[in-house]
Design brief:
The protein is mainly α. The chain is built from 13 helices and no strands. α9 crosses α11 (193-213). It is extended. The chain starts with 12 loop residues before the first helix and ends with a helix. The relative contact order is 0.04.
C-alpha cells in the first residue's frame, strides 16, 4: 500500500520528522522499523566522524551532507522514544534550549563575562550547579567512559587543572613521562601482564599531560602520526617491489634503509 506523502522541491525539519515516522510505520520500511537504539548506535558514531572528516577537508558540501546524516540519526532515536510515549523531537529541542539558557547566565542572566575565559568559567559554574556537582571528582565522573581514551584523559586533566592540581612546568611533565617509561620497563622485566597494562596506561596518561603543556591535541597528533606512517609504508612497499626485495624475508637493517629512503622522498 502506497504511503500518502507529498513530494517537494525543498523540505524542512518537520518534513524530516514526518519521513522518519513514515519509515518506522507498520507499512513503512522493514529495515528502519526493525532498528533499535542499540542496533544503530555505531551508525551515530560513524556519521559523526564523517562530519569531522568533512570539516578537516574543509568540504562545505560534505559538511552539509554529513550533518544531515547526523540529524537523521537524532530523528530516528527521537522517533523510537515517541513510539513509546517517552519523548519526541520537540522535547529534545526544548531541553537543549533550556540548557543553553541556564548555562549562559552571562548572556541570559546577570553574570558578567568580558572574554572567552570568563565565559567558560560561567558555563562551568552553571553546569556544575545544574548537575549538583559539588567537587571536581564528580565532574570528572560525569565524563562519558565511551569517549576516545585520549580525549577522556585530556578532559579529566583539564578539570584537575581548574582546581590547581597540575604540574608547574613542562620539565616536571617530562620527568613524569620518563618515570612512567622506567616503571613500564620494570613491569616488563618482571613479566607481570596486569602490571604492564597498568604502567602502559600510566605512560599514555603522562603523554596526554605533555600534549596539554605543548598545546597539542593528542587525538589529532596520533591521527597525524598514523597517517604519516601509512604514507611512508606505502613508499617502502613500492621501493621493495622495484628493488625485488621480499619484505617478509628481509632483515630489520634492510627495511630500515628502505624506511629512510621513504622519509627522504616525502621530505622532497
Amino acid at each position: 500500500m502506497a504511503i500518502d506523502f507529498e513530494i517537494k522541491d525543498r523540505y524542512d525539519i518537520n518534513d524530516l520528522i514526518s519521513i522518519v515516522t513514515k519509515l518506522r510505520a507498520p507499512d513503512g520500511c522493514p529495515w528502519d522499523r526493525a532498528q533499535t537504539h542499540d542496533s544503530i548506535k555505531k551508525n551515530f558514531i560513524e556519521e559523526t566522524y564523517e562530519v569531522i572528516e568533512a570539516i578537516n577537508k574543509n568540504s562545505i558540501d560534505g559538511m552539509r551532507e554529513e550533518l544531515g546524516d547526523v540529524l537523521l540519526q537524532i530523528a530516528l532515536h527521537c522517533e523510537m522514544e515517541s513510539e513509546l510515549d517517552n519523548f519526541n523531537f520537540d522535547d529534545v529541542c526544548n531541553d537543549i534550549c533550556q540548557k543553553l539558557v541556564i548555562r549562559h547566565p552571562h548572556v541570559f542572566g546577570d553574570v558578567v563575562a568580558n572574554n572567552e575565559e570568563e565565559a567558560l568559567v560561567s558555563w562551568d559554574n552553571a553546569k556544575a550547579k545544574s548537575k549538583g556537582q559539588k567537587n571536581q571528582s564528580a565532574s570528572m565522573n560525569s565524563i562519558p567512559i565511551e569517549l576516545p581514551a585520549l580525549m577522556r584523559a585530556e578532559k579529566v586533566q583539564h578539570k584537575a587543572k581548574k582546581v590547581g592540581f597540575d604540574w608547574d612546568d613542562i620539565d616536571d611533565v617530562f620527568d613524569k613521562v620518563y618515570e612512567e617509561i622506567n616503571e613500564l620497563k620494570i613491569a616488563i622485566e618482571h613479566n607481570n601482564s596486569a602490571n604492564v597494562k597498568e604502567e602502559f596506561g600510566d605512560l599514555l596518561f603522562a603523554c596526554v599531560n605533555l600534549s596539554r603543556f605543548i598545546d597539542v591535541d593528542s587525538e589529532e597528533a596520533l591521527t597525524g602520526a598514523t597517517d604519516k606512517f601509512i604514507k611512508r609504508f606505502e613508499i617502502v612497499e613500492e621501493l621493495a617491489q622495484k628493488e625485488g626485495i621480499s619484505m617478509k624475508n628481509s632483515s630489520l637493517e634492510e627495511l630500515d634503509l628502505l624506511w629512510d629512503k621513504a622519509k627522504e622522498i616525502l621530505a622532497e
